């Protein structure tokens, strides 16, 4: 199965663009969403996260995100330890999901690809970009968060310029109609490449 990575910085519009691909019957796996679901569902992950963060890692059976975020904020090494618990489980979940798909190719949405040198996991990479100011405004509105917080996440991610160089396709998502048109072109270009 051909796996196409759908990447881009925070608020670039990955999920929005993924939906346009879905309209061509292309299945989309959203790694972050599945990771969150597994953290609530998997008994093994739950046990290991409680070992790592303590009993307050879960509250009323649900992952206690603010608590985890505050622990990670004061001890950055906890993030890589948490990822070492969660990522292998997401990888095997993705493998099982992939086996069930019947499509010319699938998309896997993941914000982090180049930052962790994971390019080899994909046959092709599509990057979604948009002007920084638009991204900040969109995320502030979507998540009811501050400009400062969004900007600090952007500053921690690789620049669009560097990511574009390493991608096969670029979608400019300042304007939805333009982006939609590009999805159509890229979808057909991918079909052409894998034929
Ligand atoms: P994240 O990295 O945080 O997961 P993302 O890259 O998946 O974000 P989306 O969630 O698709 O981005 O988009 C961020 C917000 O911007 C959403 O509220 C979405 O509806 C809105 N949005 C996306 N593209 C556009 C656009 N072209 N015009 C206006 N709003 C947009």
TrEMBL record:
Enzyme nomenclature, EC number: 2.7.1.24
A biological process from GO: coenzyme A biosynthetic process
Pathway where this protein functions: Cofactor biosynthesis; coenzyme A biosynthesis; CoA from (R)-pantothenate: step 5/5
GO cellular component, one term: cytoplasm
Superkingdom to which the source organism belongs: Bacteria
Catalytic activity: 3'-dephospho-CoA + ATP = ADP + CoA + H(+)
CDD domains the record matches: DPCK
Residues where ATP binds: 11-16
Keywords: ATP-binding, Coenzyme A biosynthesis, Cytoplasm, Kinase, Nucleotide-binding, Transferase
Cell compartments where the protein resides: Cytoplasm
GO molecular function ontology, one term from the record: dephospho-CoA kinase activity
Keyword Kinase attributed: yes
Pfam name, any one: CoaE
Function: Catalyzes the phosphorylation of the 3'-hydroxyl group of dephosphocoenzyme A to form coenzyme A.
UniProt record similarity statement: Belongs to the CoaE family.
UniProt-listed PANTHER family: BIFUNCTIONAL COENZYME A SYNTHASE-RELATED (PTHR10695:SF46), DEPHOSPHO-COA KINASE-RELATED (PTHR10695)
Full protein name: Dephospho-CoA kinase
Organismal lineage: Bacteria, Pseudomonadati, Bacteroidota, Flavobacteriia, Flavobacteriales
